[in-house]
Design brief:
alpha+beta; BirA Bifunctional Protein, domain 2; 11 helices; 7-stranded mixed sheet; 339 residues; binds adenosine-5'-[phenylalaninyl-phosphate]; single chain; two-stranded antiparallel sheet; 2 domains
């Protein structure tokens, strides 16, 4: 009986089957239990030996049952874990994905255009000194742009740059011409905000210096940028304008041909030929740093524009303040796609 029982136990493939084997041998009316119950019918001198024998069989069967049970339980658990690990039909967990901010997308577009034209891309400090932000750019102390209302001043006398133009000066002090650069970065102005004016916004500055760089190079460059942004039929418009650091100076606009209607001239930024006073201020700084004067007598053009204006039209965002208000209803629309 012990042999058949052990055989039955070994061939039980499930916990249910094992339970049936257990009932068959050691259950209340199992075969081994019955044998024990029939001990009383034996003559007393045989009982002890027979009892010991049956108990040994019972113990062997019980041990085999226990062992088989733990094997089957472990196997059942493994099977469950494994099936969970490879269940490819379960829905995936959503992963939070970021996206590029609309301003960075516009920057990427613009910078791709200027890289094609051979420009280097540089950045500069947002905390500036008066000399780089104003003085060296030919903005005298009495110029309205120096007004307290336009500038965030720091307690140590420095300021938050009001435009990216101070990088013109920093770059020229460090590098010799000829070169073509664009500067990207944040700028700050202490002014009342409205739908098209923020106190923190961005600029893309361009500066090209060399021999015989001309106003028509500037116009051709802005036109090339417009075509890169809006296609081969894009049009640009220049209007005379005053910036202390250029002469002559011009504001430029790009005709924005909107497929959804309401096409219009988009006032993008200011530009002009680098003022001789800027070259002089740069050479003064170079000389003070023990570097040769190399700028006086050269020509160059510069421009500065606000990518927010482009992004507002491109993405149909009616108020510039939405870009920086951390409202997920606005910025969340740019989640997930990186182009
Ligand atoms: C300047 O800042 C000059 N540094 C640009 C320049 C560079 C002229 C080189 C000549 C040579 P302006 O203040 O106009 O110019 O600003 C340039 C552009 O920045 C504007 O055309 C506009 O697109 C954007 N801009 C100006 N103020 C704000 C503002 N508060 N909020 C958002 N965009 C602004």
């Amino acid at each position: 009986m012990q042999d058949t029982a052990l055989q039955d136990i070994r061939s039980a493939e499930t916990l249910e089957a094992l339970q049936a084997v257990k009932t068959k041998y050691v259950g209340k009316s199992g075969l081994v239990t019955k044998e024990l119950g029939s001990l009383g019918k034996l003559p007393p001198e045989e009982r002890k030996a027979r009892g010991a024998e049956i108990n040994a069989v019972r113990a062997a069967i019980q041990a085999a049952l226990d062992e088989r049970e733990s094997v089957l339980k472990r196997a059942a658990l493994d099977a469950r874990l494994q099936s969970e690990a490879i269940d490819v039909t379960l829905p995936g967990l959503p992963l939070p994905t970021g996206g590029l901010h609309p301003i960075n997308r516009v920057y990427d577009d613009l910078i791709a255009i200027y890289r094609r034209l051979g420009y280097h891309v540089v950045e500069g400090p947002e905390v500036e000194d008066e000399h780089h932000n104003f003085e060296a750019l030919n903005v005298p102390w009495y110029h309205p742009a120096r007004d307290l209302q336009d500038t965030f001043w720091l307690e140590d006398g420095r300021l938050l740059r009001t435009h990216t133009s101070p990088m013109q000066v920093r770059y020229m002090v460090e590098h010799e011409p000829p070169f073509k650069i664009v500067v990207r970065g944040k700028v700050y102005r202490y002014e009342a905000t409205d739908a098209t004016h923020e106190s923190m916004f961005h600029q893309l500055e361009g500066l090209v210096v060399g021999e015989r760089v001309s106003m028509s190079d500037l116009k051709g460059t802005i036109a090339e940028m417009a075509r890169g942004l809006y296609g081969p039929s894009a049009r640009v418009r220049f209007q005379p304008s005053y910036y202390p650091f250029v002469e002559p100076g011009a504001d430029f606009a790009v005709y924005w041909d909107n497929p959804r209607g309401e096409s219009k001239w988009l006032e993008l930024g200011g530009s002009g030929m680098v003022h001789p006073n800027v070259f002089k201020a740069v050479d003064d700084l170079r000389e003070a740093a023990g570097k040769p004067r190399v700028y006086e007598g050269l020509t160059g053009f510069a421009f500065g524009l606000g990518p927010e204006r482009i992004a507002m039209l491109k993405y149909g965002i009616p108020d510039i303040r939405y870009f920086y208000a951390n409202d997920p209803r606005v910025i969340g629309q740019f989640r997930g796609e990186l182009g």
